[in-house]
Amino acid sequence: MNRICFRHLRSLISAALLIAFGLGGGSARAQEFVKGPARSGADQTQQPMQQPTAETLPPAPLTSRQFVSPAGLTIEKLVETALASNRDLLAARQNLAIARGRLIQAGLRPNPTVDFEQTTDYLAGRTGEGGASVGVSQVFELGGKRSKRVAVAQLEYDRAIAEARALERQLAADVRAAYAQALAAARQLDTAEQLIALDQDLYRVTEARLREGDVASLDLYLVRVEIDRLRAQTVQYRADLESQLITLRALVGLAPSESLRLAPAPDRPALLEMEIEAATEIALRERADLQAARIAEEFGEARLRLAESQRTPNLTATVRYSRQRSVFEKTPIGTLNDVDQLLTVGVSVEIPVRNRNQGEIAAAAGEQTQARYRREFVESIVKRDVALAFNRYRAAAQALAIYGNQVMPRAEQNLRTIRAAYNLGDLQALDVVAEQRRLVENQTQYNAALRDYYLSLAELEKALGAPLPASVFSSTPVTAMTGGAAPKP
Fold first, then answer.
1. Alpha carbon 419 to chain centroid distance?
2. How many CB atoms lie within 10 A of CB 98?
3. Do residues 481 and 487 make contact, with C-beta atoms less than 8 angstroms apart?
4. How many Å apart are CA 207 and CA 181, to the nearest integer?
5. Could you list the pLDDT tens digit for every one of the 489 residues in the chain?
6. CA separation (Å) from 107 to 99, 131, 307, 312, 323?
7. CATH of domain 73-101+145-306+356-473
8. Hey, where are the domains in the chain?
9. How far apart are CA 140 and CA 111, in angstroms?
10. How many angstroms separate the Cα of 218 from the Cα of each of 7, 33, 348?
11. At what angle do helices 276-286 and 358-402 cross, to 10 degrees?
C-alpha cells in the first residue's frame, strides 16, 4: 500500500515538473500522462536496438549518407567545377574577349581613302568636254597617338583579367561557404538521428521498468515526446541540408535536380600557422581587386597621356591623278580637242586654334586622381579584410578547440553517467531527457563552431586572395590558440 502511494506521489511530482518545463499541454494533459494511455501498435512493435557503449554512438541509418560520403566531391573539385561552369563567371570572362578586341583595334593604323570623280557636259549640250580623276589620301597620326592608344587598351585588358580573377576569388569563397553550411546541416541531422537511436533504447528500458512497476507511465511519455521532438527537428535539418545543396548546385553550375554528393571535411582540422603581418603582405601582393585598382590608376595616367597627345593634329597626305578633255570651237583652224593629264600632290593639317582637346585632358586628369583615391581606399579595405578575417579565424579556432577538447567529451560522459544511473533505477527519465537536451544544445553549438571555423577559412582565403595551404584541411587535432598565430599542434 505504501509502495503504491509513493508511486502515485512520484507521478504527481513528475506531472508538475512536466508542466513547469513546458512539456505538457495543461493539467488535463498531465493527468492523462499520470493515468497511463493505451500503448499504440507502433510502440508495441519497437525493434530491439543495440545497447550504446561508452566508446561509440549506436549505429543508426543516417540520412546524410545519401548526400555526404567519402566518394563525394571534395571542396577542391567543387571549386574547380564552379570556375569552369558557373554562368555568371563565364559571362564576366567575356570582358576579356571584349578587351582583347579593343586592344587589337587600338593597334590598327588609319585606312587610306580613295575618291573618284567624273565630269561630263551631258546636261550642257554635249560639246565633248569632260574628265575624270582618282585620288588617294592617307592620315598619319602624329604625337605618338597610336602607341599611347595601345598602352591604354593594354591596361584595360590587364584590368579585365584582374577583375575576372576577383570574381573567381569571390565565387570560390561562396562555394566554400556553401560547402561548410551544407556539412554543418548534415552533421546536425546526424546528431538528431543518433539521439533518436539513443532515445529508442531509453524507451525500451523505460517500458521494461514500467512493467516492473518501477516507474510511472509519465516517464514513458517523456521519452516518447523527446523522440517525436527530435524527429520533427530532423525534418527541419534535412530541409536545411537540401537547401544548402540547392545553393551549392547553383554556384557550381549544376541543375537544381542534379545529383550532388559531398565529401566530408575533417571534424578535427589543423590550425593555420600564419602571422597577421604575413597575411597582410600576401593580400597586398595577391588580391586581384587591389591589382585591378592599381591597373586602373595606371590606366588613368595612360588616358591622360593619350588625351594630351591628341592635341597634336594629324597630317593628311593626298595624291590625285586627273585627266581632262577640253573642246575649243570656232577657232581659225576649226574645232580643237585638248586632253590634259595632271598629277596632284598635297598635304593638309588641322590648325588647332580653338579645339586643343582641353575637355578630354581635364576629364582624364580627374579620372587619374579618382583612380588614385580608389586604389588607396582598396588598400585600406584589404588591410581591414585581413584583420577581420584573421580575428574571426582565431576566435573560431579557439571556440572549436574548447568545444572539441573540453565541452563535448564532458557532455557525452555526463549523459552516459546519467543513463547508467537511470538504468539502475537511481534517476528518473526526466533527468535523462534534460541531460540529453543539454547534450543536443552542446552538439549544436559544436557543429556551429565547426561551421564557423570553415567559414572563417573561406573568409580568410578570400581576404588573402590566394589559396590557403592544403594542410589546414587535414585531420590534425585543433588545440586552443593563445597568441596572434596558431601554435603547432
1. 44
2. 12
3. yes
4. 39
5. 443 444 444 443 443 333 333 333 333 333 332 233 333 333 333 333 333 333 333 444 567 788 888 888 888 889 889 999 898 899 989 999 999 999 999 999 999 999 998 888 776 666 677 788 999 999 998 988 899 999 999 999 998 999 898 899 889 889 988 998 999 888 888 888 888 887 887 788 778 878 887 777 887 888 888 888 888 888 888 898 899 999 999 999 888 888 888 988 877 777 777 888 988 999 999 898 899 999 999 999 998 999 888 888 889 999 999 988 877 777 777 667 778 888 889 999 988 888 888 898 999 999 989 999 999 999 999 999 999 999 999 999 889 889 888 898 898 898 888 888 877 777 777 787 788 788 888 888 888 888 899 899 889 988 998 888 766 654 444 444 333 333 333
6. 13, 39, 17, 19, 38
7. 1.20.1600.10
8. 73-101+145-306+356-473, 109-140+315-349
9. 10
10. 11, 5, 106
11. 150
Amino acid at 36: G
Q: Are 102 and 160 in contact (CB under 8 A)?
A: no
- Retrieve residue 488's grid coordinates: 603547432
Distance, CA of 180 to CA of 452 (rounded, Å):
8
Residue by residue, what is the 3-state secondary structure of the chain? CHHHHHHHHHHHHHHHHHHHCCCCCCHHHHHHHHHCCCCCHHHHCCCCCCCCCCCCCCCCCCHHHHCEEEEEECHHHHHHHHHHHCHHHHHHHHHHHHHHHHHHHHCCCCCCEEEEEEEECHHHCCCCCEEEEEEEEEEECCCCHHHHHHHHHHHHHHHHHHHHHHHHHHHHHHHHHHHHHHHHHHHHHHHHHHHHHHHHHHHHHHHHHHHCCCCCHHHHHHHHHHHHHHHHHHHHHHHHHHHHHHHHHHHHCCCCCCCCCECCCCCCCCCCCCCHHHHHHHHHHHCHHHHHHHHHHHHHHHHHHHHHHCCCCCEEEEEEEEEEEEEEEEECCEEEEEEEEEEEEEEEECCCCCCCCHHHHHHHHHHHHHHHHHHHHHHHHHHHHHHHHHHHHHHHHHHHHHHHHHHHHHHHHHHHHHHHHHHCCCCCHHHHHHHHHHHHHHHHHHHHHHHHHHHHHHHHHHHHCCCCCHHHHCCCCCCCCCCCCCCCC
Alpha carbon distances (Å) from 55 to 104, 416, 446: 69, 10, 19
**Rounded CA gap, 83 and 170, in Å?**
11
